[in-house]
Design a protein that fits this description.
Strand order of the largest sheet: 1-4-5-3
Mean pLDDT: 90
Number of strands: 6
Largest sheet: 4 strands, mixed
Length: 364
């Protein structure tokens, strides 16, 4: 068997290690690792064993076919300025593993095709949000579950593992398929905004030559707010007096945080500057910047729930899937965390799961 250098690189990045760090953890020389990753030298079986132990990946992972890592230049990271290059690379390595799992599902199920519109060139985020709502037939109504909505339009939504909590969220197009990765440590309301923020990136910033990062983030923020809380719907609900108790009552309609609703009200000139500042101070005093009072239910994944349920009915567990992908179960758990109930266990033993005729997965 021949070690695949791309898999060694992804495994090393996934653990946030440099070659020097991996050399210390594995007891191998830095020069040897350089040769292995450049395919100039094939490692011995004991060397592969040492690498697998140091990186906490099954040995067979390193012998699989090429693994596709998302492009760093085509990925949209939030708060990139506060991330190190190593943290960014670790998140992209998570993306590579998610792409493998996504392809695994594609071989077995007919998943929804991507229908995210390409709005490159739109510089009015409010208009862009209206355009996506119109194309998807949403009208002005609130969105019950934004994860379901994106999945129904072909977006693959995964979680970032707990050890990637320094990454806010990110999105990327990979071979015509849009991916979104979420940090599940946030409140349900902030996660909903993150999902819509990443949708803004996918729709507005797909092509090269996109605006500077700060401008792109501002556009995605405006898109998310307008997409989640349509102006006409908000205007129809605004009462005469706007107090903090009113904000808490209103926010439930759109599943948005109190501070997010206040920002939206101000953006539409429905609050004076004095009202806006007063409400922001009151929200901060009650701890609303960290936790959400009267929080909403966390949005989950319909695609992943249905896929895992149908597989479970056939006796195929998440442990079996992880084995098929040559991963430790914890890697798969990390991608599913917060999106569906995970239950790594046994299942069919012996050979890998077969890929029967594709099952069409209907998303309602």
């Amino acid at each position: 068997m021949i070690l695949n250098p791309s898999r060694l690189v992804v495994a090393r990045k996934r653990r946030g290690l440099s070659r020097v760090g991996l050399a210390k953890a594995s007891g191998l020389a830095v020069r040897s690792l350089t040769y292995y990753e450049s395919a100039k030298v094939q490692p011995s079986e004991p060397a592969v064993r040492a690498l697998a132990q140091a990186l906490d990946f099954p040995e067979k992972f390193f012998y699989g076919p090429d693994i596709e890592e998302p492009s760093s230049s085509g990925s949209n990271f939030r708060a990139l300025s506060t991330m190190t290059a190593r943290q960014r690379d670790a998140a992209l390595a998570v993306g590579a593993i998610a792409i493998e799992f996504s392809k695994w599902m594609d071989r077995r199920f007919e998943l929804p095709k991507p229908t995210v519109p390409d709005l490159y060139g739109f510089r009015d985020a409010e208009a862009a949000a209206r355009a996506v709502r119109a194309q998807w037939g949403l009208g002005e109504r609130p969105i019950n579950n934004v994860v379901h909505l994106l999945e129904a339009h072909g977006v693959r939504v995964f979680s970032l593992p707990i050890d990637s909590s320094n990454v806010d969220a990110f999105s990327v197009w990979h071979q015509g398929v849009p991916f979104v990765f979420l940090n599940q440590s946030k409140s349900a309301e902030r996660l909903r905004m993150d999902v819509c923020h990443e949708l803004g990136h996918l729709a507005l910033h797909k092509k090269q030559g996109r605006p500077g990062r700060r401008q792109a983030e501002l556009e995605a923020n405006r898109f998310a707010s307008a997409f989640l809380v349509p102006a006409d719907d908000l205007l129809a609900c605004v009462p005469r007096g706007l107090f903090l108790t009113t904000v808490h009552r209103m926010k439930v309609r759109w599943g948005i945080s109190a501070i997010g609703l206040v920002h939206r009200l101000r953006a539409l000139d429905l609050l004076t500057e004095w009202q806006y500042r007063t409400l922001c101070i009151e929200i901060s005093k009650e701890g609303g910047r960290r936790t959400e009072r009267d929080g909403t239910i966390r949005d989950n994944s319909q695609v992943l729930t249905k896929v895992l349920g149908m597989l479970r009915d056939d006796g195929i567990t998440q442990g079996t899937i992880a084995d098929d992908l040559s991963l430790n179960p914890s890697e798969l758990e990390g991608l599913l965390h917060g999106l569906t109930i995970t239950s790594i266990g046994g299942g069919r033993h012996g050979s890998k799961t077969q890929a029967p005729s594709k099952t069409h997965l209907r998303i309602v």
